[in-house]
Amino acid sequence: MTLGPNPSERLARARADLRMGVPVVMQNGINGIMFLAAETLDNARLARLVALGAPLVIGITSWRAETLKARAYDGDIARLQVPPDVTAAWVHAVADPADDLVSPMKGPFKSLRDDAADTCRAAIGIIKSARLLPAVLTMAVDDAAAFAREHGLTMITLDEARRDIATSSPLHAVVSARVPLAVSEAGRLHIFRPEDGGEEHYAIEIGAPSRSAPVLARLHSACFTGDLLGSLKCDCGPQLRGALEQMGAAGAGVLLYLNQEGRGIGLANKMRAYSLQDQGFDTVEANHRLGFEDDERDFRIGAAILRQMGFSQARLMTNNPAKVAMLQANGIDVTERVPLKVGETSHNAHYLATKAAKSGHIL
After folding, report:
1. Which residues pair with 191 in a beta bridge?
2. What pTM does this model have?
3. Closest Cα partner for 338 from 314, 359, 311, 358?
4. Which end of the chain, N or C, is surrounded by fewer C-beta atoms within 10 Å?
5. Taking a C-beta distance cutoff of 8 angstroms, is the pair 14, 163 a contact?
6. What parts of the chain have a pLDDT lower than 70?
7. Which residues are catalytic?
8. Which of 11, 50, 39, 45 lies closest to 155, judged by CA?
């Protein structure tokens, strides 16, 4: 019997290490790669990596490769050869589009097309889950386990990384307590914690909704700027308050507050996207330039929470058909889509129009 970490705990350690700029080893068979997040790289650590003498490769998504005019031979990702005179600033510029318009000529890039790209792809997935820019600096290593021991690095396997990306971590109810709200004195807050050390998610239950009938429900993704600051760039704050008001008026409902800020890319990357929008890009274009998909959220989390709370049917308050489809695919029968059209301003009109035109929202 060992007291060491299980695969989920090793992945949690890996995400924490990557956020601090510490490399992680990914084993594939006997060998593997050492990788770290491009955005957390500094010159001191880069010098130590270069001193090891092995070629360095930077992996980016095909969206970022398209912006950089680099060939994505691996389909959804591109692996770029790192020049011998590499600096941390060069790596940051490949990963971060902040100065693309100021310094557009970053290439030419030599994209690799030999060897399997599986480990690089999985590394990008783990870095995404750490809410970092999806760009990874990698180095091939022989005997991955020995290399990890020698340098005191966390090691995960390719299979573990793939499972982490493909599956949603099991959630456990931690506690619930009565919280009287302005919309209803019969409010109750439930806390759910994932096994993988990720962010907790919340369920605000209004009244005592029946478990044998469709519940009035909303899956609301956390929005610090809209929900807390009253930002006019989105409609999130009005949607949050409007949904709770409707549930209060109905006397029952459940709002899931999912910590998936910025459509799942995290607050820092969301602010990067806002900065790109200030340069003239729309919300979808900004995400793509950063290397992300239009929407990186995992709505399976919402389905899992509803099931744990005893609900199997929902009248879902949303303008996003993707939420309906995801709940349906994960065991929640959506009997009705309840529109939630609130919060349009002169500041977010273009944002809402883009969501309708490019992301299929019904507005």
Report:
1. 175, 202
2. 0.92
3. 314
4. N
5. no
6. 1, 105, 343, 348, 351-352, 355-363
7. 295, 297
8. 11
